[in-house]
Write a structure and sequence with these properties.
The chain is an alpha/beta fold. The protein is globular. Bound molecules: adenosine-5'-diphosphate-glucose.
Length: 460
């Protein structure tokens, strides 16, 4: 790569060794390439300081900045997670449009741009992550930065119709066009972005596929994110998940693992499991659902509602179907270490991944990587998870159709070994091939190509 690699994400991994696929992948490529990682420190400061704190990384530098309480509330909890998140997940009805939050969000992006502009050089390649920083390229350009600016949007690209609900919707195409490379998860997302530009006067798609808008030429492409599949498979085989759960010899296991977010479809999933138990006949196998759902963004009202609803439905299903020696739903509301989650996936006959809307969904890929190839479980996957484009061999369901999901559970729990293996072989090949290393390489190679082209064009 020519020039320095610069990564920007909301949080840097400053609390010890990184864990979790994306953070580890970014850490690995920075360790290999060298460079700098910018992000918030996780600390709250009494006043906003235009200064970074330097933290040593493993072969790279980290530059962090503190948010004030007002910035944390308006930028992070407010505009990013109570406006942009619901908007991009087709829940404009849940947007909390508080006056002042947009100004705070833009203010944090401007402040970061001002501070980064002092560091950046024209041949730097900057990789910015996620919806916290949608206007960052526009702010950096306003500071005179000419470096190559890449962006990756981890969540779905909003539909044109939904975007109209955003008061700042006219700025959105300008924010996107200020980057040089915009990475999206799926072809469906790329189609949504192209549709947005098609609806705008003055936007055009050039012969080489790039877009032109606002006097800028930029590329929008899909780069489906993957997981560190090999290490996940190794972790899965280290312990016996059935022992961890004290499962009876004949008991079958269904697993769900999600942050407790309204986009993940937990409520309908629990209803579907209840409907499956309802329709179960005496000689059908007895299956339990292990639902692991750690808390997330608890200060946001919509998240309190989904927590209450999840607890209400699981209590109801357990009340109806529990026996003296059996509780059908085990619901765990906390984070579980990866070394434990992996063997639990492997112990499960079914991976139930049923979001209403999801950028990719790494749990679907983790579940597949963790299976015993000789006796694999089956993935039930929502048609609205980005992962569906790469995983057609899963059993695909509509997460709004509770009856269909209950029927899918029955079918899958009775699925013959040959069919389970055929589906799993196909899914595993894709998960291993398109892993997280492949994702970082393809993104960074594309950004390097664009950087070289931009430098050459300037030299003409
Ligand atoms: P998320 O919405 O967080 O990510 P997902 O892709 O499923 O969704 O990743 C969740 C991660 O958290 C997985 O690695 C999972 O193992 C882990 N996890 C979940 N519950 C856990 C628990 N109880 N304890 C420990 N770990 C747990 C966003 C987008 C996704 C996109 C990713 C990556 O919403 O669509 O796939 O970014 O781009």
């Amino acid at each position: 790569m020519t020039g320095r690699l610069v990564v920007v994400s909301n949080r840097v991994p400053s609390d010890g060794p990184p864990s979790g696929g994306l953070v580890v992948a970014l850490h690995d490529c920075l360790t290999e390439e060298g460079g700098t990682w910018y992000g918030t420190s996780g600390r709250i400061a009494p006043t906003a300081q235009d200064e970074f704190t330097d933290v040593a990384g493993d072969g790279y530098d980290m530059r962090t900045f503190d948010l004030t309480q007002a910035e944390h509330d308006g930028y992070y909890l407010g505009y990013a997670n109570s406006v942009l998140w619901p908007l991009c997940h087709r829940r404009a009805d849940l947007m909390a449009l508080n006056s002042g939050d947009y100004d705070t969000y833009l203010g944090v992006n401007r402040r970061l741009a001002r501070m980064m502009a002092r560091d950046l050089k024209p041949d730097d390649q900057v990789w910015i992550h996620d919806y916290h920083f949608l206007p960052l390229a526009a702010c950096l350009r306003a500071e005179g930065v000419t470096a190559t600016l890449g962006y990756f949007h981890h969540i779905p690209f909003p539909a044109v119709h939904d975007l109209l609900a955003l008061p700042e919707h006219e700025l959105f195409p300008h924010w996107i066009a200020s980057f040089d490379l915009v990475g999206l998860q799926t072809q469906r997302d790329v189609a949504a972005a192209l549709e947005m530009y098609r609806s705008l006067a003055g936007a055009e798609q050039l012969r080489d596929g790039s877009l032109h808008y606002d006097n800028r030429t930029f590329e929008v492409r899909s780069f489906p994110i993957g997981i560190d599949a090999k290490s996940f498979a190794q972790a899965a085989a280290q312990r016996d998940g059935r022992d961890l759960l004290n499962l009876g010899a004949k008991e079958r296991l269904v697993i769900g693992v999600d942050r407790l977010d309204y986009s993940k479809g937990l409520d309908n999933r629990l209803r579907a499991f209840g409907a499956y138990l309802e329709a179960r006949e005496d000689n059908d196998p007895r299956a339990s659902l292990l639902q692991i759902a750690p808390p997330t963004r608890e200060e946001v009202a919509a998240y309190q509602n989904i927590r209450n609803e999840t607890e209400r439905i699981s209590g109801q299903v357990n009340g109806l179907h529990s026996d003296l020696d059996w509780t059908p739903i085990r619901y765990i509301h906390r984070a579980i270490p990866r070394e434990t989650i992996a063997p639990l996936y492997r112990a499960a006959d079914v991976g139930l991944v049923t979001p209403f809307c999801d950028g990719m969904n790494l749990v679907a890929k983790e579940y597949v990587a963790a299976q015993d190839p000789d006796d694999p479980g089956v993935l039930i996957l929502s048609q609205f998870a980005g992962a569906v484009e790469q995983m057609p061999s899963a059993v695909i369901v509509n997460p709004y159709d509770i009856g269909e999901m209950a029927q899918a559970l029955r079918t899958v729990l009775a699925m013959p070994l040959a069919e389970r293996r055929a589906r799993h072989d196909d899914l595993l090949a894709g998960v291993l091939r398109d892993d997280v290393g492949h994702w970082t390489r393809t993104y960074l190679d594309t950004m390097s190509r664009l950087a070289a082209k931009r430098l050459a064009d300037k030299g003409d």
